[in-house]
Amino acid sequence: MSAPLILxxxxxxxxxxxxxxxxxxxxxxxxxxxxxxxxxDRIEDDGAVxxxxxxxxxxxxxxxxDLGDRVMGEGQEPIDLGETxxxxxxxxxxxxxxxxxxxxxxxxGVAAGAGANLALACDIVLAGRSAAFIxxxxxxxxxxxxxxxxxxxxxxxxxxxxxxAMLGEPLPAERAEAWGLIWRCVDxxxxxxxARALAxxxxxxxxxxxxxxxxxxxxxxxxxxxxxxxxxRDLQREAGRTEDYREGAxxxxxxxxxxxxxx
Length: 263
Ligand code: T3D
What we know:
Layout: E1 6-11, E2 14-19, H1 30-45, E3 51-56, E4 60-62, H2 81-98, E5 103-107, E6 110-112, H3 114-121, E7 124-128, E8 132-134, H4 151-156, H5 158-167, E9 171-172, H6 173-179, E10 184-186, H7 188-202, H8 207-219, H9 225-239, H10 243-253
Parallel strand pairs: 2-3, 3-5, 4-6, 5-7, 6-8, 7-10
Antiparallel strand pairs: 1-2, 8-9
Bound molecules: ligand T3D.
């Protein structure tokens, strides 16, 4: 039996998803997309999961699409890459952005092509010092996808996003942090433990409130201030009805640590 391409480990309230094709730097093929979709199904269906950690096995995080599946013979009709985005990559990015639970990404090595943008779709991105982000698409005549023309300009500005997209140079993790592309760069040896600790912490926090924060931040780039203020009003109304808000306010007044339940 062949090894699973995605490992899913649910421990307490944290689900850890590991991309597991290390010999190909965890590049995506269709089977891996299928297994990742199943892992996300399980996570979405499991109300006890309150935080997700995404990482890669081996020395790379993810090298994007497996180009071995894209080699075309002479005279052969090109594969419709719009269709593969529609079927695999776009639903993946949408699911991560819409999952109303925090997703931490531990970028354990190179993140290239769709692999870089998969990382950027996560909520809090930690990267090992030896990791790098590469918008590798231009090197092979493609356009950044999986959010590669959406996340970078919003995170680092158009000038830097254009340089990354048109030059395809590796952006080392330290500079990615300095530019504001990711949350933090940490020593390689500490990466997975720090990411786990962060995910465990988030899993004890007001899950519904965090989900509503994510919804507000997702909507923000397309809204003007008036629309965003209205959205904040609506989401705050919802947050104000949660058990966790009741507990948070009570715990503050009683000068004790809150015990959030994610409800
Ligand atoms: O196609 C569609 O459906 C549209 C969607 C597209 C989304 C995309 O992601 S397009 C972009 C695809 N990705 C790339 O262009 C990146 C290709 N990889 C690289 O440029 C380099 O591998 C890296 C810069 C990521 C890392 O370089 P390095 O020197 O550390 O490692 P390496 O030696 O190049 O790679 C190690 C092995 O992984 C190697 O296999 P081997 O020779 O040991 O058997 C290499 O071929 C393999 N590998 C790495 N990336 C891919 C890959 N094999 C297939 N596809 C890959 N993307």
